[in-house]
TrEMBL record, chain A:
<dbReference type="Pfam" id="PF00472">
    <property type="entry name" value="RF-1"/>
</dbReference>
<dbReference type="InterPro" id="IPR000352">
    <property type="entry name" value="Pep_chain_release_fac_I"/>
</dbReference>
<keyword id="KW-0496">Mitochondrion</keyword>
<dbReference type="GO" id="GO:0032543">
    <property type="term" value="P:mitochondrial translation"/>
</dbReference>
<dbReference type="InterPro" id="IPR052405">
    <property type="entry name" value="Mito_Transl_Release_Factor"/>
</dbReference>
<protein>
    <recommendedName>
        <fullName>Prokaryotic-type class I peptide chain release factors domain-containing protein</fullName>
    </recommendedName>
</protein>
<feature type="domain" description="Prokaryotic-type class I peptide chain release factors">
    <location>
        <begin position="44"/>
        <end position="140"/>
    </location>
</feature>
<dbReference type="GO" id="GO:0005739">
    <property type="term" value="C:mitochondrion"/>
</dbReference>
<feature type="region of interest" description="Disordered">
    <location>
        <begin position="121"/>
        <end position="189"/>
    </location>
</feature>
TrEMBL record, chain B:
<keyword id="KW-0489">Methyltransferase</keyword>
<protein>
    <submittedName>
        <fullName>S-adenosyl-L-methionine-dependent methyltransferase</fullName>
    </submittedName>
</protein>
<dbReference type="InterPro" id="IPR002052">
    <property type="entry name" value="DNA_methylase_N6_adenine_CS"/>
</dbReference>
<feature type="region of interest" description="Disordered">
    <location>
        <begin position="156"/>
        <end position="184"/>
    </location>
</feature>
<dbReference type="GO" id="GO:0005739">
    <property type="term" value="C:mitochondrion"/>
</dbReference>
<feature type="region of interest" description="Disordered">
    <location>
        <begin position="55"/>
        <end position="91"/>
    </location>
</feature>
<dbReference type="GO" id="GO:0032259">
    <property type="term" value="P:methylation"/>
</dbReference>
<feature type="compositionally biased region" description="Basic and acidic residues">
    <location>
        <begin position="55"/>
        <end position="73"/>
    </location>
</feature>
<keyword id="KW-0808">Transferase</keyword>
Length: 189, 425
């Protein structure tokens, strides 16, 4: 049962990403408002427009060899875009991913900045920028005085398992040796 | 096998010290990197499982020594430690996974198939468990099973409500006029011979169950390990929800010898029942209206991926070293047959299974036979076999609609699917 859960969540890069995004959303108000706007729908393809190949080599096959490569390559004939996926060991999963990547690429070609992929990238960029800004503000306030520092520490302790590493970082930071902006979300993973 | 370039090995080592080990078997950096990723995930899973087991043992010991009543599992807070602490335990990566990964990589560098190390192989939408002693399902077999399901849907049109589902271009292009499959509304009866892990039978059920209201698929193998594993696979995939809930009732796996007949049974060395003695034991396979001199058994479709490598091809280098050393020979090379009762004289050693099954197909009333063959030469010999057996058969080699790269010579060396349909009337 444990393996099944892992399959459902971790080997699928798309669900994995969205899972992280979900857990992040609760911390930031701006991200919530961004996510509320629905993305444009994913492009659907006619099967006749696609050439799907399983990239088998030449020479003997079948029982004589045991290849672990299950890469899938899809060519979109009208645009000539080629995508390849070998993310998982399963051919049908790889085909699904390749289709999703292809849909994003073709849509980007058609719609440019209004495409699904472009909007997603834009949101990610904005979110990151706002996160950096907040972090910068937080540590600037911290340096200003002891008052601010205790307040921040309380906040950090509310976040549960982050307490040790965050306070360590703060102590380190008060020593004034480094300029690195902490990526708190990154540490949490 | 061409020698690996030093530059490749160095480049691999810089990425990860374990990659050169995997390169020995994978030969390309790309596939080595993929395998390292999968092995790494597997090592972490193993370590995690080990930790959960240890934790369980630890908790059990704790309650045993303190003589407190152990809280029931659905109790919200079973442990006295703080919530912060337990959460951190669950999040951290388990210890010991690096050592496990190194062991796995060393095993792989000696040629152990990846599927035996990881314990499974994806097959269509299913996950087929693998273990040493049973042949690993191949990619080619996966493609052929999809093709077979398509052929079956054309040849045996499912009853009307789901008929509209089948709109594949191949379906409309086939020249044979489809005849109603079940005048008596019985299940569609499929026999999978030399089933191994049961992969073909299971995937066929997955692909056909939405279209047919009732199916009966029997998988037969001579290896007790294979039968045990195929039953495990059936329950594994049903429990995970990949297979429909009908599967346990409609799929069956039996130990049986495809090559021996009941009369030759007494002389055979092992104690495994012949195919003919097994078939009447399945109620669905009994013919409701047996004719005089008939076998009394009725099967609609026979599908098989039997051992098909010749003795010569097994040792002359066309068979991969890892396959030769680590996979069961019995699943790759057909046994030498002493008696000529089962198979006609003059049949080549690697073709005995095809000859035996083709000879039997007419007697059990099969209307379609599907074979995986080692190469196109063997496929043509199998087509010739069908000309010699009773009944009129329309035989051809299935062509991949996607086309093939590598030219005619490379294509002829590859495995192929032979589809034989019995002409009606």
């Amino acid at each position: 049962m444990f393996r099944a859960l892992h399959l459902a969540h971790c080997t699928n890069p798309f669900t994995y990403l969205s899972y992280i995004n979900l857990s992040r959303r609760s911390f930031s108000i701006s991200a919530l408002s961004l996510a509320d706007k629905p993305l444009p729908p994913r492009l659907k393809f006619q099967d006749a427009d696609l050439t799907i190949s399983y990239l088998k080599g030449t020479g003997p096959g079948g029982q004589k060899i045991n290849k672990t490569n299950s890469a899938v390559q899809i060519i979109h004939k009208p645009t000539g875009i080629v995508v390849k996926s070998q993310a998982t060991r399963s051919r049908s999963q790889n085909e699904k991913y390749a289709r999703q990547i292809l849909a994003d690429k073709v849509e980007q070609l058609l719609n440019g900045d209004n495409s699904r992929a472009a909007i997603k990238a834009d949101r990610a960029r904005k979110k990151k920028a706002s996160k950096m800004k907040k972090a910068r503000r937080k540590y600037r306030d911290l340096e200003k005085g002891q008052e601010g520092a205790t307040e921040e520490l309380d906040n950090v302790e509310l976040m549960g398992e982050m307490d040790e590493s965050a306070s360590e970082f703060l102590e380190h930071r008060r020593g004034g040796e480094t300029d690195v902006v902490p990526d708190t979300h990154g540490q949490k993973q | 096998m061409p020698r690996l370039a030093n530059s490749t090995i160095l480049k691999a080592y810089r990425q990860s010290p374990l990659l050169p080990l995997l390169l020995r078997e994978c030969r390309t950096l790309d596939s080595a990197r993929n395998e390292l990723r999968w092995l790494r995930q597997h090592a972490i899973d193993i370590a995690q499982e080990r930790r959960e087991r240890d934790y369980e043992a630890h908790v059990a010991q704790h309650y045993a020594s303190h003589s407190e009543p152990r809280p029931s599992p659905d109790d919200p807070a079973p442990t006295p430690s703080s919530p912060h602490r337990t959460r951190r335990i669950a999040r951290a990566r388990p210890t010991g996974w690096r050592r496990t990964l190194r062991t796995l990589c060393h095993a792989r560098s000696r040629g152990t198939p990846l599927q035996y190390l990881l314990g499974d192989q994806p097959f269509g939408d299913l996950t087929i468990l693998c273990r040493k002693g049973v042949l690993i399902p191949r990619n080619d077999t996966e493609s052929f099973t999809y093709a077979a399901a398509e052929q079956i849907l054309t040849r045996f049109p499912p009853p009307s409500p789901s008929n509209a589902v089948d709109k594949s271009p191949i379906a409309t292009a086939t020249p044979t006029t489809p005849t109603p499959a079940h005048p008596n509304n019985g299940p569609l009866r499929i026999l999978d011979l030399c089933t191994g892990t049961g992969c073909i039978a299971l995937l066929l059920h997955d692909l056909l169950a939405p279209s047919y209201p009732s199916l009966k698929i029997l998988g037969v193998d001579i290896n007790p390990l294979a039968i045990q594993l195929s039953r495990r696979n059936l329950h594994h995939n049903t429990a995970l929800g990949w297979l429909s809930t009908r599967a346990p009732a409609e799929l069956e796996f039996r130990l049986g010898d495809v090559l021996s007949t009941p009369s030759s049974f007494s002389g055979s060395a092992h104690n495994i029942a012949a195919l003919e003695t097994i078939l009447p034991q399945i109620p669905e396979f009994l013919d409701p209206t047996p004719l005089q001199g008939d076998s009394g058994v009725k099967v609609d479709i026979i599908i098989s991926n039997p051992p098909y490598i010749s003795r010569e091809a097994f040792v002359d280098g066309t068979t991969e070293r890892s396959v030769r050393v680590f996979e069961p020979v019995g699943a790759l090379v057909p046994p030498e047959l002493a008696d000529s009762e089962v198979v006609a004289v003059g049949c080549r050693g690697e073709d005995v299974f095809y000859a035996r099954i083709a000879g039997m197909a007419g007697r059990v009333g099969a209307r379609m036979v599907l074979f995986e063959c080692g190469d196109y030469g063997q496929g043509e010999r199998v087509m010739e076999l069908f000309r010699q057996v009773e009944g009129r058969w329309e035989v051809r080699i299935w062509e991949d609609a996607m086309g093939t790269e590598g030219g005619e010579a490379g294509r002829r060396e590859r495995a192929c699917l032979v589809v034989a349909k019995r002409a009606e009337g």
